[in-house]
Amino acid sequence: MTVDHGLAVALRRRRYLLSAWPWRALAYALTTLPLAGAAAFGAAVVAAPLLLVVSALRRGRPVDAEALAVLAVVALAVVAFAPLAGAPVAAVERWRLGLVDDRPVTAPRWRGLAARFTTATGWREGAYLAVLGVVLPLAYGMFGLLVLLDVALVAGPWLAGGEDRIVLVWATVDSPAEAVPYALAGLLAVPALVYLAGLLVAAQAAVARRLLDDAPGGAALREVTRSRARLVGAYEAERRRIERDMHDGAQPRLTALTLQLGLARLDVPDDSPAAKPLAVAHEQAKELMVTLRGIVQGIRPQQLTELGLAGAVGELAARSVVPVTVRADLTRPVPDLIETTAWYVVSETLGNVARHAGAGRAQVRLTRDDRRLVVEVRDDGRGGADPARGTGLTGLADRVAAVEGRLLLSSPPGGPTLVRVELPCRP
């Protein structure tokens, strides 16, 4: 089992500066520069003539109508070309997101050139190209000025002392001694700049995921809803029925079986070959009674008590016939009922993956924030899961809704499939 901490989450950690995340953010920022530079150059080629025309109009100078028409055509052509130009940039960006966010990014499945212009995904990729060419150069430029200012402060003692006086921020210094306090302030500002760089990169990554991750679009995450009154009543009726059947049928028979095995142990000598197997069978019968009673009464699975949610889910993954990766970010305690619900959700969903998805791999992600626990199970199978064709997903929705949570599903034909469950965690 691996523990996942995305950059946005890592920024809230006390040991952020001592971790690898600042270096990963730096790598992401450095690899952004050539992409943003190329996009900014393209934006400047289009924007420069338009700015000249606007400037001429503001000064009252005449502008040729043909020139305006040509510029309008060029601008429209650039906008129309954006979905095509954004495709290679989006492919690189989906790969680069792994530097600061370990969650997989779903790429669209294109069906011809026309799909670039007729789907929202193509225009979202064009919008991200605009973000790269316009917004990010401004943001990175402002951050670069702050870095240069800090470097000047730190280097002040070495720059001062010459024939010319130097200006540091708002003060003029004549000697290295006068520049030392500014250098100390610059050194103290370095951690703040590292955090600011992390925030800038995290914001860029969030925008990139929002625009380039195709999982929430197309066959969008749709909530699998059920009638709250119906499901609560049905759940309680079914629980009472199972409890009654167990109390009147299975439990007396198990009790009789346990007693018979206990009496048989008394009649079998300790040195008999049957003594040990008989003792094992007796203990297993008693454990089975406890297990059945616990299931009916709603007691937590034993794995949760012993290992916690992350460990119990890791054990489910280890037993799965499909390779499963578990990524857990559980920084706060989870209520017992929510833990139990999440465990059953993962157990049932992984069972569905093994039985129906035809998947080669699956991933489970657990995230806990101030208000909720989010469980995501993703597989690379054939997709096409539909709650209307079976009771498995609606049964899960019933269980989740019983604790005031919600279940969302994305499963376009051809995959991948994403099941997302949001469970409330009240303080």
TrEMBL record:
Enzyme Commission number(s) from the entry: 2.7.13.3
Location of the Putative sensor domain: 68-212
Signal peptide, first to last residue: none
Ranges where the Histidine kinase/HSP90-like ATPase domain occurs: 344-425
Alphabetic keyword roster: ATP-binding, Kinase, Membrane, Nucleotide-binding, Phosphoprotein, Transferase, Transmembrane, Transmembrane helix, Two-component regulatory system
Ranges where the Signal transduction histidine kinase subgroup 3 dimerisation and phosphoacceptor domain occurs: 238-304
Transmembrane regions: 21-47, 67-87, 126-159, 179-202
Keyword Coiled coil in annotation: no
Catalysed reactions listed for this entry: ATP + protein L-histidine = ADP + protein N-phospho-L-histidine
Pfam families linked: HATPase_c (PF02518), HisKA_3 (PF07730), Sensor (PF13796)
GO molecular function, one term: kinase activity
Top-rank taxon: Bacteria
PANTHER family assigned: NITRATE/NITRITE SENSOR PROTEIN NARX-RELATED, NITRATE_NITRITE SENSOR PROTEIN NARQ
Protein name as annotated: histidine kinase
Organism: Micromonospora echinospora
